[in-house]
Amino acid sequence: MTIVVIDDRIDRVIAGYAQPDNLGLDEDTTVIDLKDQWVTPGLIDCHTHLTGQLKPAIERMRSRMQEGEAHSAIDAVANARKTLMAGFTTVRNVGSGGSVGLALRDRINQGVVPGPRMFVSGPPVSVTGGHGDPTNALSPALRP
User: Fold this and answer.
1) Are 3 and 35 within 8 A, CB to CB?
2) Helix or strand or coil: residue 25?
3) CATH domain 43-142 topology
4) Amino acid 109: pLDDT
5) pLDDT category, 29, cuts 50, 70, 90?
6) Residue 136: its pLDDT value, please?
7) Structure pTM?
8) Where in the chain is the domain with CATH 3.30.110.90?
9) Where are the beta strands (DSSP E) in the chain?
10) 4 strand-pairing partners
11) Crossing angle (nearest 10°) for helices 57-66 and 69-85
C-alpha cells in the first residue's frame, strides 16, 4: 500500500508499493517504509473535556474552585497534545468552563498549539447543583 501525503493531507492511496518517480513526484520526496507497521485512520472522541480530563474527580473540583481559567488553559494545551499523540485526530469538547475550549480550538486551528481538530460546545448549561454546575452546589461557606 502506498499513501501519498502532500501538504499534510492524504492525496491518494495506491495498492502496492510505488516509487516517488513513478507517481510524478520529485526524486527527493521523503519515503517512509511502513511495510511492517499499521496505518489506521485517526480516532474520534465524541465526549471529552480537555480542560481537565486526566485528573481524578476530586482534583478537578479543587482545580475549578481554587485555580481558575489560566490553569485550565495550560492543562488544556497539555491534554490536547496528549490526546493527539494517542491517535485522536478529532474531539468533541463538551462543557468546558469559560472560553478555554473555544480559545484552544482557535489556537490549534492557527497552528500555534498541537492538538486534534475540535468541535466545541462552550460552557455547560446546568441547573444549580447539576452535573454541569462548577461548584456542584457546594455552599459558598465551604469553598476555599
Assistant:
1) no
2) coil
3) Translation Initiation Factor IF3 (3.30.110)
4) 98
5) confident
6) 65
7) 0.74
8) 43-142
9) 2-6, 9-14, 43-48, 88-93, 117-120
10) 12
11) 140
